[in-house]
Amino acid sequence: MPRITRAALIQCSNPLSDTTDLKKIKAAMIEKHLGLIKKAAEDGAKVCCLQEIFYGPYFCAEQEVKWYDTAEPIPDGPTIKLMQDLAKKHQMVMVVPIYELDMTGVYYNTAAVIDETGQYLGKYRKHHIPHCHPGFWEKFYFKPGNLGYPVFQTRFGKIGVYICYDRHFPEGARELGLNGAEIVFNPSATVAGLSEYLWKIEQPAHAVANQYYVGAINRVGTEAPWNIGEFYGQSYFVNPRGQIVKQASRDKDEVVVADLDLDVIQEVRNVWQFYRDRRPESYTQTAKAIGV
Fold first, then answer.
1. Does 281 participate in catalysis according to the annotation?
2. Which of 7, 18, 197, 223 counts the most CB atoms within 10 A of its CB?
């Protein structure tokens, strides 16, 4: 019997883009997502992933310490507790990206993974932190991830997470495959312009090279007062052959739902033996970097 997982991606605009009141924005974004999460469940999704730091604007467009106040501990903060309740209510695995407070003065860009019973399974911390273009000052806010590339066993498949800028680096995508991932989610916040042409290249390439499904999520709309560009949506699922199987619009709040046949992973790997034929011992620069 085929292993079919119905999965959902949620792309969403900031309903209060004309204010920088932290508490109001956070409350409004969470409230807006409640309805979208409910829709994903009503559409039959068994796994649902939200966008990068889903409860706020992309505040990395400026460097202000006030945004530290939006961070929460994982799993003991109120937002993850709420999402645990929702996961249990909807019987749906949830991937929830938020701004994590680890200890006083130490913050990460993190996604928590919660199973359909509401149990917290663990978290992934974004490894690759950009600080390279006006409007993307992430090193001011985030310490690089230090928990490796975990894969979470769920009833509906083995789930891995990569976050936004991570997608430009194939090494972590390969690590997720080697760790057994069947579906890799990449929650993002990316605007039109410099890297947009890569949006439909890199993640299908990761799916092909590693022969798993990828769910790519991007927010929509523009966010004042920074106006660094248009978040262009186009969230999508791509299969292990690199084919986009379902895609959202560019400019609307949307829940993307797709049926992912996990047995296709075996079919593809029986044809393309990339894991069998890889030669890590011959990649000399990588070997030197890790001291082999």
1. no
2. 7
Percent of the chain with pLDDT over 70: 97
Maximum separation of any 2 CA atoms in the chain, in Å: 54
Q: In sequence order, what are the beta bridge partners of 251? A: none
52 is catalytic: yes
Q: What is the pLDDT of residues 7-32, one digit of tens each?
A: 999 999 999 877 778 999 999 999 99
Q: What are phi and psi of 275, to 5 degrees?
A: -75, -35
Q: What is the pLDDT of residues 35-67, one digit of tens each?
A: 999 999 999 999 999 999 999 999 999 999 999
Q: Tokens for 31?
A: 């409230």
Residue 258 burial by CB count (10 A; 0-12/13-18/19+): exposed, middle or buried?
buried
Task: Please indicate whether residue 126 is annotated as part of the active site.
Answer: yes
Per-residue burial over 171-210, b if 16 or more Cβ lie within 10 Å, else e, is ebbbbbbeeebbbbbbbbbbbeeebeeebeebbbbbbbbb
Out of 60, 164, 202, 254, the active site residue is 164
Instruction: Pick the catalytic residue from 32, 126, 158, 246.
Output: 126
**Domains of the chain with bracketed CATH:** 4-289 (3.60.110.10)
